[in-house]
């Protein structure tokens, strides 16, 4: 459909006052307001001159607004551009080149504060020539869409005066001979590297940088500027194009290690049991020293899956976590972004096409992190997108965009310098759109089959390094001998590294620095089942603190009961519900110095209005987080009420878990089904990062689960998907393995309490999927006593049925989840208490083989074993547990016993949408265990 009507329907929600929202943000996110950078407004003289020469002002503003559409930014000159009528001076009545104008207040020609009240006289010829040089060159600027007058003035002044915004600023990048030689070395070495790989490994998909070599001086200039500005750490995310070039050059990755990997070797030690990843996902994290910088700058290139944009929010989360750690220990004058910067690289097609890009950009305020640069590769826009530029998605957050022609490396370096200056002044995102071309797609393809004209032009042109070498020879910066020396010396180095490949032995550094106190999960030192209970006195203190309301703070009337019930349960030690157990787990971790962060939609209140970890003053809309205010612990509780995004938000929290082992990060889906919007992050990061990249994570996914008549998309956390993603062993007789993640379905608050604390109390980190309760949140039968969570207690993977006489049991029914409480009521109503035993398997992965066997041995006269679930047969846990339970029965000598399935039949839906049908099906599920008794 070429055009159409899009109707946005939205309720006019009342929004809290900015001061109230800001106060909560300050308290819960560790936010520090960035430094302000302001320009003086126009003087009266300048305003009068602008009015007097309004036609000239319109022309100048049109050059600022539309100059990018006529700029020379396409290295292949294939982008079809119509004439930009807005740039014709005749449209503004400007026909006389010799006419002289006063440009004071219209053009910026002097340093801020130096512009006097007198006239600044320029002929129109000078004005036109100057504006075209600035705005219609090899760099195109889009900044006039910014709603900030200060930002627009900052750009106009910097670009038009080509001087400095203020006396204390350092100059823009200076292209002296040394800088030009550095650019040449990076370009030349990149080309030598690509040619070397093509010669030595002709069948390798290497995703070379040929055509896009300017990426290297772009990043080198950025790292240099950041280092000089005092940035200590750069978190870098990028796709595969040019990754190997960057790794082996600027990021100092061993070429011998690379060649070892190309030949099929491990990039990680084999004895760790991990399986590694492909060549184009390799990483490095060097400390780089730049001239003039007082300290080295550490650049951490993150591992990423082949879903290229999935790493975006992971990088943002890691950056935010590193910033937060620094803010907890740094002086008050240290602001977010002073020491840590996130840089993202993208291909143009994915930047335009992947929705997570927009989601990640939308986290800008939520995350309070940096997102600096986009690097694009020339693809015909007609085939790739509907917008003029791939970067247009960035305008949703009013990000400035600098488009730069990759055939001109010095302009590329200048664009990066300008971009960093903007980021450093305003602490906002900015996009650099580097237009380059790909000489090859993946070295084994023939792109000319589908793009013949483009690749005919590419084949006929000299490479970017060769063009730049010609320029430097003409300028007498380099000689032909200099050029030959750079190329031959680097080729010799690569030859030496290739010879060293045979003796290369990979090493691992995943347990250094902040991870030094953590062990590898498969090691003998790993503590799998630590005590997670807490002293009773401490629990009482935490429980009271969690609902402490300051004098004069007016909470909602309906919350008085919430406060009363919590105080009563922690005082009496009985009736502890899920929300209370969670608060006790959080508070105990905070007192032990662990930070807790929970994100998702409405997590402060809780989707089911049960948590109330933050309280809102009904008179002022001021917000408090009682556990922070009352406990005043070293740990901090962050409540991130996030945007309506799953993929980006989960990725963000997962990235934070990589950075901080002493953080309990939780992402709570509004309903369990909604995780499917984040399935890519779960598949490529949560479930597999340890196996691919040796990355541990304490990430918790809280997925509300349970059939209760709510319909297809509000019932299931798709347990079957989560369980299928685990590498859980299949047979009781197999050796226990290092499972990639845990999947649990707790039925009591105490079990939930222990699961949360176990994430941190273990001396290693492992992702945890919790099929969370909905109907059990306020069910009195599902409450716990305080002795269930006191010191010396721990999580129980299996809970036996508290039957009186187990010799009378004829049927054993194993199950998980809330249906247990409905079955207990049904059993009581039928007076069959001792005939049917219901055994709850609380942790589905790793499957608790030994605990299941120990409990089954207690029933000597069982006639049948069954698995019961609410979910349809093709869903839920049945496919995961059936074979495993059967292996337990075989070891018990009951190999002839068949595990019977009890539950719904197969369905394309997790739950029916018709209430009457749901009731009929649920009734059948509840009656099934008692048939024949």
Automatic annotation (TrEMBL):
Keyword check for Hydrolase: no
Record keyword Oxidoreductase present: yes
Domain of life where this protein originates: Eukaryota
Gene3D superfamilies on file: 3.40.50.12470, 3.40.50.970, Multifunctional 2-oxoglutarate metabolism enzyme, C-terminal domain (3.40.50.11610), TPP helical domain (1.10.287.1150)
Residues covered by the Transketolase-like pyrimidine-binding domain: 576-779
A Pfam family the protein falls into: OxoGdeHyase_C
Requisite cofactors: thiamine diphosphate
Membrane spanning stretches: none
Stored SUPFAM superfamilies: Thiamin diphosphate-binding fold (THDP-binding)
GO molecular function, one term: oxidoreductase activity, acting on the aldehyde or oxo group of donors, disulfide as acceptor
Keywords, ordered alphabetically: Oxidoreductase, Thiamine pyrophosphate
Example of a GO biological process term: generation of precursor metabolites and energy
Family affiliation: Belongs to the alpha-ketoglutarate dehydrogenase family.
Name of this chain's protein: Transketolase-like pyrimidine-binding domain-containing protein
């Amino acid at each position: 459909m070429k055009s159409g009507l899009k109707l946005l329907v939205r309720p006019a929600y009342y929004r809290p006052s900015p001061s109230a929202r800001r106060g909560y943000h300050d308290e819960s996110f560790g936010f520090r307001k960035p430094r302000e950078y302001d320009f003086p407004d126009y003087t009266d003289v300048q305003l009068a001159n602008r009015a007097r020469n309004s036609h000239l002002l319109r022309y100048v503003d049109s050059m600022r607004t539309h100059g990018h559409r006529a700029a020379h930014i396409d290295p292949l000159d294939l982008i079809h551009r119509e004439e930009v009528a807005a740039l014709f001076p005749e449209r503004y009545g400007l026909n006389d080149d010799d006419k002289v104008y006063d440009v004071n207040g219209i053009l910026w020609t002097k340093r801020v504060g130096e512009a006097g009240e007198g006239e600044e006289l320029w002929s129109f010829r000078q004005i036109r020539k100057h504006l075209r040089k600035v705005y219609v060159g090899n760099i195109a600027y889009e900044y006039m869409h910014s709603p900030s007058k200060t930002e627009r003035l900052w750009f106009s002044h910097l670009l038009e005066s080509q001087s400095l915004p203020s006396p204390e600023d350092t100059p823009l990048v200076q292209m002296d001979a040394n800088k030009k030689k550095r650019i040449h070395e990076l370009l030349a070495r990149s080309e030598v590297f690509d040619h070397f790989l093509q010669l030595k490994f002709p069948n390798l998909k290497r995703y070379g940088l040929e055509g896009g070599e300017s990426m290297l001086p772009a990043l080198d200039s950025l790292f240099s500027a950041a280092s000089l500005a005092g940035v200590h750490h750069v978190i870098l995310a990028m796709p595969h194009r040019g990754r190997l070039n960057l790794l082996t050059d600027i990021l100092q990755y061993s070429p011998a290690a690379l060649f070892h990997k190309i030949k099929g070797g491990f990039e990680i030690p084999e004895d760790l049991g991990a399986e590694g990843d492909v060549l184009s996902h390799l990483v490095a994290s060097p400390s780089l020293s730049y001239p003039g910088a007082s300290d080295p700058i550490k650049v951490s290139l993150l591992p990423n899956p082949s879903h290229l944009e999935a790493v975006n929010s992971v990088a943002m989360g890691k950056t935010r976590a590193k910033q937060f750690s620094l803010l907890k220990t740094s002086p008050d004058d240290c602001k977010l972004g002073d020491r840590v910067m996130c840089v993202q690289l993208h291909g143009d097609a994915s930047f335009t096409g992947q929705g997570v890009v927009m989601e990640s950009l939308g986290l800008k305020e939520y995350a309070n992190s940096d997102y600096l640069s986009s690097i694009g590769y020339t693809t015909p826009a007609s085939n790739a997108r509907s917008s003029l530029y791939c970067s247009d998605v960035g305008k949703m957050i009013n990000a400035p965009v600098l488009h730069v022609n990759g055939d001109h490396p010095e302009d590329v370096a200048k664009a990066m310098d300008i971009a960093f200056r903007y980021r450093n002044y305003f602490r906002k995102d900015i996009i650099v759109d580097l237009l380059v071309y790909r000489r090859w797609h993946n070295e084994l393809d023939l792109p000319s089959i589908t793009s013949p004209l483009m690749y005919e032009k590419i084949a006929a042109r000299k490479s970017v390094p060769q063009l730049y070498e010609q320029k430097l020879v003409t300028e007498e910066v380099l000689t032909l001998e200099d050029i030959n020396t750079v190329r031959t010396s680097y080729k010799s180095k690569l030859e030496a590294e290739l010879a060293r490949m045979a003796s290369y032995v990979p090493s691992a550094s995943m347990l250094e620095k902040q991870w030094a106190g953590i062990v590898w999960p498969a090691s003998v030192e790993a503590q799998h089942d630590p005590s997670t209970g807490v002293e009773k006195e401490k629990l009482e203190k935490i429980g009271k603190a969690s609902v402490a309301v300051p004098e004069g703070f007016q909470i909602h009337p309906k919350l008085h009961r919430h406060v009363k019930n919590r105080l009563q349960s922690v005082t009496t030690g009985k009736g502890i519900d899920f929300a209370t157990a969670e608060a006790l787990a959080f508070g105990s971790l905070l007192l032990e110095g662990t930070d807790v962060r929970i994100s998702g939609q409405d997590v402060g209140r809780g989707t089911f209005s049960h948590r109330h970890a933050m309280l809102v003053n009904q008179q002022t809309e001021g917000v408090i987080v009682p556990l922070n205010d009352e406990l005043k612990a070293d740990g901090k509780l962050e409540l991130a009420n996030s945007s309506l995004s799953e993929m980006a938000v989960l990725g963000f929290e997962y990235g934070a878990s990589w950075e901080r082992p002493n953080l309990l990060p939780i992402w709570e889906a509004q309903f369990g089904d909604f995780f499917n919007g984040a399935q890519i992050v779960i598949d490529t990061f949560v479930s597999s990062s340890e196996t691919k990249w040796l990355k541990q994570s304490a990430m918790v996914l809280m997925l509300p689960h349970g059939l209760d008549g709510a319909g297809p998309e509000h019932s299931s956390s798709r347990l079957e998907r989560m369980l299928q993603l685990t590498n859980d062993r299949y047979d009781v007789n197999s050796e226990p393995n290092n499972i990639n993640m845990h999947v649990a379905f707790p039925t009591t608050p105490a079990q939930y309490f222990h699961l949360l604390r176990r994430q941190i109390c273990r001396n290693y980190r492992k992702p945890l999927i919790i099929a969370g309760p909905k109907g059990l949140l306020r069910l009195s039968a599902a409450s716990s006593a305080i002795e269930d969570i006191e010191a010396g207690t721990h999580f129980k993977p299996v809970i036996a049925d508290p039957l009186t006489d187990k010799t009378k049991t004829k049927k054993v029914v194993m199950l998980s989840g809330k249906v247990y409480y409905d079955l207990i009521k049904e059993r009581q109503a039928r007076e069959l208490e001792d005939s049917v035993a219901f055994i709850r398997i609380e942790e589905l992965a790793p499957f608790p083989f030994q605990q299941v066997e120990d409990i089954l041995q207690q029933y000597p006269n069982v006639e049948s074993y069954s698995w019961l679930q609410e979910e349809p047969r093709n869903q839920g846990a049945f496919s995961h547990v059936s074979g495993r339970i059967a292996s337990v029965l075989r070891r018990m000598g009951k190999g002839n016993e068949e595990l019977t399935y009890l539950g719904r039949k197969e369905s394309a839906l997790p739950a029916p949408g018709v209430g009457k049908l749901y009731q009929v099906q649920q009734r059948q599920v509840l009656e099934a265990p008692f048939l024949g008794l």
